[in-house]
Structures are given as C-alpha cells and as structure tokens.
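User: Second chain of the day. Same drill as before.
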Amino acid sequence: MGPWSFVGRTAELNRLIAAATDEGARGLIYSGTAGIGKSRLLREGVATIDTDRYAVWGASANIATAGLPFGGLAQVLPADQPAGLSPAGMLRWAVEALHQQAAGRPIVLAIDDVHLLDASSATLVYLVARSEQATVVGTLRSGEQVPLPIRALWTDDLVDLAELAPMAVDDVANLLAEMLDGPVDSPSAERLWR
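Assistant: Same format as last time:
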C-alpha cells in the first residue's frame, strides 16, 4: 500500500506554494502540534514547485544532527567544505555555495522541524532568507525552543509564521474514506475528528 492521497488543507497548501514562488512574497513557517500534518503539507507544497525555474532544496532537521555544525543542512551543502575557515568564513562559503548551486535560479529552502536545527544551520537559513532571490519555507513544532536566528525570520519580517489548525471534520471524513477505500458515516468521522 502506497501513501494516501493528500486530502484537505487546500488554502494552507496554496499559501505555502505562493510564499515559495510568488515574486516578492515572503517565506512561510507553519507551526503546530506534533502529528497535525505539517511535514506532509510541506512535502506536498514543495513537490509542486518547478525545479527548472527554482533551485529547491529540502532538509529535515533532527535530534541526531542538532549538535553538529551545519548538520541540519548537510544534505543541501556541498560535501567538500573548505578547511581552516573561521565560523564567519564558513557561513559566507555556505551562502555562496547555495547560490552557485542554484545557477541563477531563485532558491527555495524548505526545512522540516526548523526548531531542531543546529546553531550554524539556523544562522545559514537566516542569511539565505535575507539574500536576494531566496525564500525559506518550513515547519516547527509549537511549544519547542526555537533557535534565535530562526525566530528572527519572522521578527525581521522575512517569513510569515502561521499556526496550522487541526483538519476540519469534512477533511477528516475524506481522509478516512481514502484510507479505508470507502465512505465513512458522519458520526464515526466526527468521533474520530474529536
């Protein structure tokens, strides 16, 4: 059995895509509780972006890389990091490397669980968001400690921060119908939604 179809959250999905691709748009971070669907929403939105027009890089921060410099963005940075650079020099190198890899295309940096980024990666995300032709979209878990450079994304008006609400009861009913390959009666859907 493959993954279920993406159901509901049309407005949230469209907002994410617009934040990533509309000229002059700011980025977007969706926050919400664990299991509410932030990661899937991010993946679905990023999957629609034309990679011929945009340099799209996705990263998923996690506890395993939280203590490693640039560990959260290791999958998007070149493997051959120069030796002997100062921390500021490494940041300059990383920003330049991402722009070189983009080859003139606008950058869309999509990061799941930005609250788990290591300090170097969080700072790099902030610098990328400040640069010309770059947008950051991502997710964070509500109530978690957020690195200061990530918090600065919305306090410096580089991204919008939006709380992802639970799915509507009709969307839950449609999701259940998708999962079960058939209709679900309204009382059952409402009970599961609650």
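The mean pLDDT is 88.

User: Great, on to the next one.
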